[in-house]
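Allow me, if you will, to draw on your knowledge of protein folds for a short while. I have a record of one protein: its chain in single-letter code and its fold written as discrete structure tokens. The full record is reproduced below for your convenience:
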Amino acid sequence: MGDLYLALIHAPVYNKNMQIVATSITNLDIHDIARCAATFGLKRYYVVHPVETQRSLAQRIMAFWQEGFGAEYNPDRQQAFARVRLAVDLQEVLEEIKQEQGHYPALVATDARKYSNTISYTAMRARLDQEESPVLLLFGTGWGLARELMESTDFILEPIYGPGEYNHLSVRSAVAIILDRLRGH
């Protein structure tokens, strides 16, 4: 089984008007996805944002739980945050994984829409179990990853469907569901 990584991409993503934007980093996304990453044994969770002030905010949030009172108050949170890294863009993430692993990871995006290279959870789980190569899961904020980024991936996981027409989960919920489908017991 190869190492599994996750990147939460804040730009380039769409807003509700399908314009390319950068979204804000949220405290809950950092916390909840870090806890999912630790629960499901991910190698690393990257928070990707091009704006320095946003990364600085995330660093302050993480530092509170990794040092001093926050670390003493909740050691489990400190353990989860040990997997989190901040990055300027996806290329920085890819280069770090390549340096660590010796080659680039397979890119697997997530989206609420189907694409020509959509793969089922069963098929992706089998690939993860059988292959030794690293995989980087890409999650977009806002209304999803930019089309150009989606088209550059190796696979796109099928959408998460409920019984009705509504299909717009928070990224935290989508991460939890998808990681359970790919790594849960």
